[in-house]
Amino acid sequence: MSEERREAGPVIVLVAPQLGENIGMAARAMANFGLRELRIVAPRDGWPNPAADAASAGAVHVLEAATLHATTAEAVGDLAFVLATTARARGQMKRVYGPADAVPELRQRAGEGQRVGILFGPERTGLENDDVALADGILTFPVEPRFASLNLAQAVLLVAYEWGRGGPLPFAAEPGTPPAPRVALLSMFDYLEAALDQAGFYPPDKRPPMARNMRDMFLRMDMTEQDVRTLRGAIRALVEGRMRRKA
Amino acid sequence: MSEERREAGPVIVLVAPQLGENIGMAARAMANFGLRELRIVAPRDGWPNPAADAASAGAVHVLEAATLHATTAEAVGDLAFVLATTARARGQMKRVYGPADAVPELRQRAGEGQRVGILFGPERTGLENDDVALADGILTFPVEPRFASLNLAQAVLLVAYEWGRGGPLPFAAEPGTPPAPRVALLSMFDYLEAALDQAGFYPPDKRPPMARNMRDMFLRMDMTEQDVRTLRGAIRALVEGRMRRKA
Lengths: 247, 247
Known about the structure:
2 copies of one chain form a homodimer.
Chain A: H1 2-8, E1 11-15, H2 20-32, E2 38-41, H3 50-55, H4 60-65, E3 67-69, H5 72-75, E4 81-85, E5 95-97, H6 99-111, E6 116-120, H7 129-132, E7 137-139, H8 152-164, H9 182-198, H10 207-219, H11 225-246
Parallel strand pairs in A: 1-2, 1-6, 2-3, 4-6, 4-7, 5-7
């Protein structure tokens, strides 16, 4: 899965990015979710850019493999399907995708061997209309309309995340010991209820429902055998501590 | 939808954040997707922090409403369900969620009136085990195992994005004019094919399949009436330009 994801992932095209920090953060976000092909069109501060390296948190393999282009048209020349990110309507008759609809389309095309890519505009102004016109469709994000401006690297992250969203988590729950067999639980409940009887815990007419409720509480813990042993030991310590204090 | 999302969204708890920039970027990411309750535990550089304001890109409503706490336990005191973000296994017997499984659980609990929250650790070290122990479950991200370290604000963004993922896009495709009726298309095809006949375009034995293929190409354009008028005008200009050159 991991290898395939990296091979087929969309090319990220940053058009006229202003801040090296954002280029570096975008590279880091790509690396987090296995995208690795970055293209940079006419970066304001030139290329390579030390601020990008510093912000990449070690995603140097992405920055070192990045290619530099003079125009957006040149940067998308070998791509078969291109989406342009924008936070506002552009009056262009293109299909509008959210990340969740875009990724299945990108993945299907990539699976057919098409090269696919996504354009991101400069921080302050976004893509120019002529750059949007190069694309097959528009990609936007389900943001709050009153606070719609995403940071450049954050927008790249959302695309990378959505691409990797179905992938495996880096670790799973602790395997632990298997769940306790019911007989161990029932034996612990009997032990606890006998101890509570001795301690005078139950009002005489309330014992059956109170005991059932407490069994319910413990059943919701989904205990392992080790948990049952630990809890039984804790109950015994309380009982024997009380006995010792009495003695 | 928008109001409801903001009301019910998870509380974001930043534990011992180091950089004001990251606090500000986290607030911006929250505002982008309609989360608004931020709690900050023992920030390294004090609070308020001018670097946070500068990086928030105007999400001051989130920063001004943020509350400051001395301990993580205090910050989660009123919450009924808490997840702890971590990039590595901690040997604690907790359920491990990805964002895509966590949000349905958070949304269900929030819908029942429970207050829910998510803990994020300091940039360099992540959450301490004692902070993780305060949580009901662990939240991690489907990152590439070899490049697993997410920036703090990026991690907050992914939670906020996943919370808002089902929401509406800020704009839709241009409504445009309605699709062209088939009769307008067929009339344009006839006009084009007659012009191509006159121009000697078709090899005699290939006309029927070539004409069908070209009709297929134009049908894939899913043209509006305006598109048909524009294209018909362009064909006429080519024909008449040729006539004029001949004259």
